[in-house]
């Protein structure tokens, strides 16, 4: 990876990778370093990771890292309100690609626990349950859509302002009109303040979306990813 490009007027540093393999390698090194620091200093570590297809190569590589995984807590950034075994479930993807090999002993804390009747009740239960974890996170690995959403903080969602509020609970039930399922999402306040906040992007569409979001960093509701621009944010991108 080359020296990062610092975006003036923001806390954003942009790392450009040659391809998805080198990007996954660089991101893994960065995440492992943060987790090791947290384990040394606090005896446990909290890792927050996004879903989707982009993180798969990174999660596979991370699963082989030499860490005391039994003391690492893993939380998804967000979750779809679908059946537990649905392929679209982010926690299922994390189990499939991260909780393997050496990382099989990591502790996964799902946003949706069994027996929840609706997303609002599930968000309330998850906020209480996850409060026991060692916040702020050692490292947060975000993703971003071309519409500027991150986690399930979608533009236009009725609950977006609550999700962006500084006093929001850890988990918010979201009803994004652009999506076909309801969601649970960690709030911006839960995602903020990590020892390291990383944003993983791939493709020209995502690069252009990032540039658009950076052009007007004040309009948070239009591009929710902007809430992270005024704190240290490391962007890992490749074509």
From TrEMBL:
GO terms for biological process: carbohydrate metabolic process; pentose-phosphate shunt. Transmembrane segments: none annotated. Gene3D superfamilies: 3.40.50.1360. GO terms for molecular function: 6-phosphogluconolactonase activity. Coiled coil: none annotated. Its EC number is 3.1.1.31. It catalyses: 6-phospho-D-glucono-1,5-lactone + H2O = 6-phospho-D-gluconate + H(+). It comes from the Bacteria. The keyword rRNA-binding does not apply. Pfam families: Glucosamine_iso. Residues 19-237 form the Glucosamine/galactosamine-6-phosphate isomerase domain. Pathway: Carbohydrate degradation; pentose phosphate pathway; D-ribulose 5-phosphate from D-glucose 6-phosphate (oxidative stage): step 2/3. SUPFAM superfamilies: NagB/RpiA/CoA transferase-like. Keywords: Hydrolase. PANTHER family: 6-PHOSPHOGLUCONOLACTONASE (PTHR11054). Hydrolysis of 6-phosphogluconolactone to 6-phosphogluconate. Belongs to the glucosamine/galactosamine-6-phosphate isomerase family. 6-phosphogluconolactonase subfamily. This is 6-phosphogluconolactonase. The gene is pgl.
């Amino acid at each position: 990876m080359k020296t990062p490009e610092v975006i003036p007027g923001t806390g954003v540093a942009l790392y450009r990778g040659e391809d998805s393999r080198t990007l996954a390698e660089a991101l893994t090194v960065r995440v492992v370093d943060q987790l090791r620091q947290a384990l040394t200093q606090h005896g446990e570590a909290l890792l927050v990771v996004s879903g989707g297809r982009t993180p798969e190569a990174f999660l596979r590589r991370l699963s082989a890292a030499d860490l005391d995984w039994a003391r690492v807590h893993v939380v998804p950034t967000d979750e779809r309100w679908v059946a537990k075994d649905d392929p679209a479930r982010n926690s299922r993807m994390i189990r499939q690609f991260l909780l393997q090999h050496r990382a099989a002993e990591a502790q996964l804390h799902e946003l949706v626990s069994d027996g929840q009747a609706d997303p609002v009740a599930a968000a309330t239960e998850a906020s209480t349950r996850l409060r026991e974890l060692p916040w702020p996170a050692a490292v947060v690995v975000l993703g971003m859509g071309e519409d500027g959403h991150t986690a399930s903080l979608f533009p236009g969602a009725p609950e977006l302002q609550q999700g962006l509020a500084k006093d929001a609970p850890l988990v918010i039930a979201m009803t994004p009109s652009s999506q076909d399922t309801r969601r649970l999402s960690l709030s911006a306040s839960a995602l903020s303040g990590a020892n390291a906040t990383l944003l993983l992007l791939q493709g020209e569409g995502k690069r252009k979306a990032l540039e658009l979001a950076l052009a007007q960093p004040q309009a948070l509701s239009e591009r929710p990813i902007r809430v992270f621009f005024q704190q240290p944010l490391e962007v890992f991108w490749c074509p």
